[in-house]
UniProtKB/TrEMBL annotation:
InterPro entries: PPIase_dom_sf, PPIase_FKBP_dom. Keywords: Isomerase, Rotamase. It comes from Antrihabitans stalagmiti. GO terms for molecular function: peptidyl-prolyl cis-trans isomerase activity. This is Peptidyl-prolyl cis-trans isomerase.
Amino acid sequence: MSKPEVEFQEGPAPTELVVKDLVVGTGTEAVPGGTVEVHYVGVEFDSGDEFDSSWNRGESIQFPLRGLIKGWQDGIPGMKVGGRRQLTIPPELAYGPAGGGHRLSGKTLVFIIDLIDAK
């Protein structure tokens, strides 16, 4: 797979996590609290500006789900290796309300995640 394009979403930002499978995988299923290896790209919902991408670094990243923002902890389990999923994550499930000290605090975020491995 190659780096995905994140399509701009019309209308107001959702107030709950929105999970959309773009490609359904057929491999091992990611489980809550498991470890995943992913490629991802993240953009701000309002502006469409990209703020992070493993593709730009040229390598995937592996980490335990419990160490991630709540939107990833809730949105990745059930995904299967080989799949590509879009998560639209409100601030409460990302970096908290505006003024929270993180540069993405108060922002709704959109990630497209490719699941490479799950343990």
